[in-house]
Amino acid sequence: MSTADFLTNLFGKYYEDNFDRIISPSNLRKREFGFMFFKYGSIIRHLSFDDENQLKTFLAREAPSDVFYSAAYYIQPAMPKMPMKGWEGCDLIFDIDADHIETSCKNEHDRWKCQVCGKADKGIKPDKCPICGESKIEELKWLCDTCLDYAKLETIKIVEDFLIPDFGISKSEIGICFSGHRGYHIHVESEVVKKLNSQARREIIDYIKGGGIDPELHGLQEIGRKKLITGPDTNDKGWGGRITRNVIKFISKLQENEILMEDKSTRKKLLTLIKEKQNIINSLSRHPPLWDVMRNIDINFWFLIVERAINMAKGEIDEPVTADIHRLIRLPTSINGKTGFQVKPLKLNEIASFDPFSDSQIFEGQMTVHTSDVPTFRIGEETFGPFKDEKVELPLSAAVFLLCKGVAQILKT
């Protein structure tokens, strides 16, 4: 049996056995659906369903590798071209992916291989092969606890620091799910956002990513002849309070060994911050705050610190996903064909304790496969690998993960 046949049968059995547990999106008849299959290379889309039973029957019968539905609502979702569908609105979607977050672990577990000369190495894929100069490079993006912990923290930040306090979105209008691979999705279903066009959604993106933030407009300025420095309060709404809270956070974490690469003038002032850390934090935490606590720290230096604080405070999101009013997004409770993990729906109070390597696993049993080059990985409480060109017996969830990632094969009988 081929890998594609095996996974198709396994996924089909999941959808058949969990017929009543598969979640259908709201307003199902107005959603476009798209599917990928292990035996085909491209997505099949522009499909629609009349009811939940029809959708679930399709999943059990056809066993797709990946299931997507439109964030948008259409009058005729099955029409083959967008202008023919009759767009009525769109949920606000955020995709938080570890690919867009700088993590050092990528240098340890990601792999790449030149398809021309065969040069292979660990780390982030180069634009061109360092040996032959060709750009035909195959990439294997792995996932680990570090990657997904960073993505989780970003997800919580976007919901709790932006959507709820700044945009006034209620918890009941926010859906969260683990993507089944390298991140999380946030679904906002609200009449307030439904009619927003792409440009309006880009404004939301810019706000969350801290684009074009002017500290002076949030109160950081010099006043009077003595050039007294004033700035925002931690209790201020929006980016004003966020700036001050993250300046405090930046200063509290600042260490001498982190500033060695700064220029001499900046390093001297940062050393002052470190030595007077608690005094400055106390002064900025007051209401109103005392920004002029250190006379040898001028307004331009505060602008530098605020810039770094903004970089800490901003949210990391996949911009095209949020801006696209025709975007297809993964169906919660479906399976991600890149890993065999469930696209797991989560409540806001569940995400902090959620463990994707345990809580999104859906297959039970044992299986022996032949691996190629496999980095270390964890499924449940067990850690496996690294493996290289060997036969290994694994829990079924672990074996399916490797088969889906393309780094293992079914043993020939």
Helical amount among residues, as a percent range? 25-40%
Identify the CATH homologous superfamily of the largest domain. Answer: DNA primase, PRIM domain
CATH class category of the largest domain: Alpha Beta
Count of discrete domains = 4
Give the neighbour order of strands across the main sheet: 2-1-3-14
Question: Can you name the CATH architecture of the largest domain?
Answer: Alpha-Beta Complex
Number of strands: 20
Our measurement of the CA-to-CA distance between the termini, rounded to an integer number of angstroms, reads 9 Å
Average pLDDT taken over every residue:
95
What is the topological layout?
Elements: H1 3-17, E1 33-36, E2 44-47, H2 52-62, E3 66-70, E4 72-74, H3 82-85, E5 87-90, E6 92-97, H4 106-109, E7 111-114, E8 120-122, E9 137-140, H5 145-163, E10 174-178, E11 183-188, H6 191-194, H7 198-208, E12 221-223, E13 228-230, H8 238-253, H9 264-275, H10 277-284, H11 299-313, H12 319-323, E14 328-330, E15 345-346, H13 356-359, E16 366-374, E17 377-379, E18 382-384, E19 387-395, H14 396-405, E20 408-410
Antiparallel strand pairs: 1-2, 1-3, 3-14, 4-5, 6-11, 7-8, 7-9, 10-11, 10-15, 12-13, 16-19, 16-20, 17-18
Helix pairs in contact: 1-2, 8-10, 8-11
Molecular structure report:
With 413 residues, the protein is of the alpha+beta class. The protein folds into 4 domains: 201 residues, DNA primase, PRIM domain, CATH 3.90.920.10; 32 residues, no CATH class; 99 residues, no CATH class; 51 residues, Ribosomal Protein L9, domain 1. Helices cover 33% and strands 21% of the residues. The chain contains 14 helices and 20 strands. Strands 2-1-3-14 form a 4-stranded antiparallel beta sheet, with no helix packed on it. A 4-stranded antiparallel beta sheet has the order 6-11-10-15. Strands 8-7-9 form a 3-stranded antiparallel beta sheet. The chain is globular and about 85 Å long. 36% of the residues are buried.
